[in-house]
Amino acid sequence: MKKYRYRIRFKDRVGMVRDISEIVAQGGANIVSLEVKRGEIYLQVEPLPEEKLSYIIHRISHIPDVYEVTSVEWMPHELAEQQLRTVINSVQEGILSVSKKLIINTCNARAMQILGINYPPVGKPLYEVLKLPDEVLELIRSGKPLEQKEVAISSSRGSIRVMVNSKPIFDDKGEIAGAVLTIMKMSEIRRLAHSLTRPVMVTFDDIIHRSRKIKDLIELAKTVAKSDSTILLRGESGTGKELFARAIHIESPRREYPFVVVNCAAIPDTLLESELFGYADGTFTGARRGGRPGLFEFAHKGTIFLDEIAEIPPHIQAKLLRVLQEGSVRRLGEMEEIRVDVRIIAATNRPLEEMVSRGDFRADLFYRLNVIPIYLPPLREHKEDIPVLVDYFIKKFNQKFNKSVQGISPDALELILNYPWPGNIRELENVMERAMNLCKEHIIKTKDIIINSPPILFSPSEKFMHLKEMVEETEKEALVRALSQGGSARKAAKILGVSHTTVIKKMKKYGITLE
Fold first, then answer.
1. Which CATH number describes the domain made up of 379-448?
2. Is the pTM value of this prediction over 0.70?
3. CB under 8 Å, gap of 24 or more: what pairs does 261-264 form?
4. Backbone angles phi, psi at 142, to 5 degrees
5. Neighbours of 159 (CB within 10 A)
6. E strand or H helix at 471, and its extent?
7. pLDDT tens, position by position, 454-468
8. Using an 8 Å Cβ cutoff, are 429 and 421 in contact?
9. Domain 91-192 carries which CATH code?
10. Would you kindly state where each structural domain of the chain is located, as residue ranges?
């Protein structure tokens, strides 16, 4: 289609616009658009027969001081609008501009995508397209800026949560002329935050091994990583369950999305529910203004790793079951459910079957979690991996402590191989770190290896322990008995009359595990 747009270049003088306008009018044409710059005039005329158009352009080219008339594709304002439209459509945020009466003037492609509409809603009232709370609309009307307001809005795909920002537009007199709104999905904001803050993830190549048993486990984990099925990692403390969970996430199609770790035993009962599922504004004393999304929302499209899953109390077990069944969460203090797309990897060192039979763990939740069980064997069942693990830890601590230890003596390695390692790989790492600190030569000797040393050391001449040591020994014995009787940290806390957090801290202090 022929464009009726021209650039006229001339030696600047008074009356040039008048001369051009008269020729166009005499030729029987209307001027659609005229833009004047220094030494240039851009002219757009209405469609004309070819002979009339040629006559007009010929006469313009012979106006005194005109030295060039060329056809152009765009008028300057059209080009500027096209460039602005391209910029607006290229950003990640949805952009809407509205008039003083909240009528939509501009809507970019991203906003249409977020709102689930197929056409620009230009000319429509804002409330018909974006259902914002009344207090937000009032802020926009009054010309007050709005920053990072999280709201739930309705779209063709259901309810979604977005972050809304608004900046007022003022006219030449300083009066309110409208506003520009930006909207962004909360799931995308969390993904961006994850991309900026995520730690270095591990892969299956980072799992140090030589044994066939671990090699077969890695092959199994690589296979199941491709699906979205729930995985339950079983094994004693220190066997590398979190390491496997991270490697599974990196091997999965969700690798570009968050990997969220939740230690269910380390979070008090009173906080665990709000941490997992989030809460609404004003739900409880001390709640953050505006509410807070839970870890399931943060893990949207990614993976959540629920470590020590057996420690979750019954009322949270019920909510977790709903997430597995329905794929939705409900914040504390809200009735609305939020859809989440999360893969769950759980881990435990507890006998869940026995807990189910005692009524301490829901049977339906156990079956939902136990879709793909993976058992990580204790170190004593794959001792052929110990030499390569020892070499790995020597290299690791050489770098950390700026040492140059070259290896380990045969006697020292034999000592390590003959130990049953109840704390598994984590205990081996601690022993090697201790040995690297004690080693004064280039080879680790048996004297550098201290395994299972008693927590209280005193000389043979001493007949009694200090009072502090006696108190700690008594405290440790009471803790072990309560854990043995109760079977969990939470029940031990009830037996001892202390908080669950106190029991966890004491267990860490004395190196006590539930085994």
1. 1.10.8.60
2. no
3. 261/305, 261/307, 262/295, 262/304, 262/305, 262/306, 262/307, 263/307, 263/308, 264/306, 264/307, 264/308, 264/309, 264/310, 264/311, 264/312
4. -80, -5
5. 12
6. helix 467-486
7. 443 344 444 445 566
8. no
9. 3.30.450.20
10. 4-76, 91-192, 204-375, 379-448, 467-510
